[in-house]
Amino acid sequence: MTTITFLKQITPELSLQQYNEIPVIALDHHIGKAFISLQGAHLFSWQPKAQQKDVLWLSEIEPFTLGNPIRGGVPLCYPWFGGKQNPAHGYARNTLWKLTDYQIETQKVQLEFCLFSENHLIEAKINMEFYEDCKLTFTHYGQDPAEIALHSYFNIADIENIEVSGLPTSCFNSLIQQQETVPSTRKIAENVDCIYKIATLETHQINDAILNRCIEITHKNATETVLWNPWHKETSSMNKESYKTMVCVETARISQKLSQGEKVSTIISVK
Ligand SMILES: O=P(O)(O)OC[C@H]1O[C@@H](O)[C@H](O)[C@@H](O)[C@@H]1O
């Protein structure tokens, strides 16, 4: 169960709330609603005005506890992807970020969150723009090259009734640790964990026949996209049946790390 406590009004559209142990920035604007956890600068809900349902998926059993990554939304896996070091997918998603800037306009809202090191130096920034679409731009400031994944979980009606289209026809299947040839349009009927090499500007679609919508994901300056659904594989903070209503299409820089000052963006638009 999530206990939500109102902490502070920041502007008429922005407030600070507490979800169990986690501080959350809530946006309630006529363009839509968004919720961002300060742990991880983690956007976990985005519902533009025109949408009946959230664009992002969030686990119904998410406990919102400090130090544990949130299951759903857009975790920022940084400065590494996967389990090559501890914690898996980097420390940024388990660390408190700061809200460093906001601009509220009639047709657009911009929020900026920064991650600082122990000695108060900036490590990373994420700029979130909400209009009819949502654009997330990540900037890496550290001196050492770093990996990033904007690990977006999308909300779908039924995993067996969607298609992910526009993908390349070759991917690295992490489950069998092999490169494989796959159809460009993927239907998902089992555990999938594939890393695709992509061009610097690419768009992929999630066509959801039941919700009668298409989520379009544009990756800018990424080198990979990751397609993931755990299916029945036991996954923390997820119910057994949760896999049915989510699919991850991630925007990543894994093979070519980000250098100091480099940016990578995801633009999410619903048609
Ligand atoms: O359980 P986590 O750390 O959030 O990771 C979830 C998944 O994230 C995906 O990006 C990886 O490709 C998967 O291998 C991993 O299982």
Q: Identify the CATH class.
A: Mainly Beta
Biggest pleated sheet: 8 strands, antiparallel
- Provide the number of structural domains: 1
Determine the fraction of residues in helical runs and give it as a percent range.
under 10%
Taken from the alpha-carbon principal axes, the silhouette is globular
Kindly provide the radius of gyration, computed on alpha-carbon positions and rounded to a whole number of angstroms. Answer: 17 Å
Number of strand elements: 21
**Bound ions, cofactors and other small molecules, one mention each:** 6-O-phosphono-beta-D-glucopyranose
Under CATH, the topology can be stated as Beta-galactosidase, Chain A, domain 5
Indicate the structural class: mainly beta
What value does the average pLDDT take?
A: 98
Report the end-to-end length measured between terminal Cα atoms.
Answer: 33 Å
Please count the helical segments: 0
Which regions contain 5 or more consecutive residues with pLDDT less than 50? none
**CATH architecture annotation:** Distorted Sandwich
Please report which band the strand proportion falls in: under 5%, 5-15%, 15-25%, 25-35%, 35-45% or over 45%.
Answer: over 45%
> Which H/E pattern describes the elements?
EEEEEEEEEEEEEEEEEEEEE
Active site: 151, 250
InterPro entries: Aldose_1/G6P_1-epimerase, G6P_1-epimerase, Gal_mutarotase_sf_dom, GH-type_carb-bd
Enzyme class: isomerase
EC number: 5.1.3.15
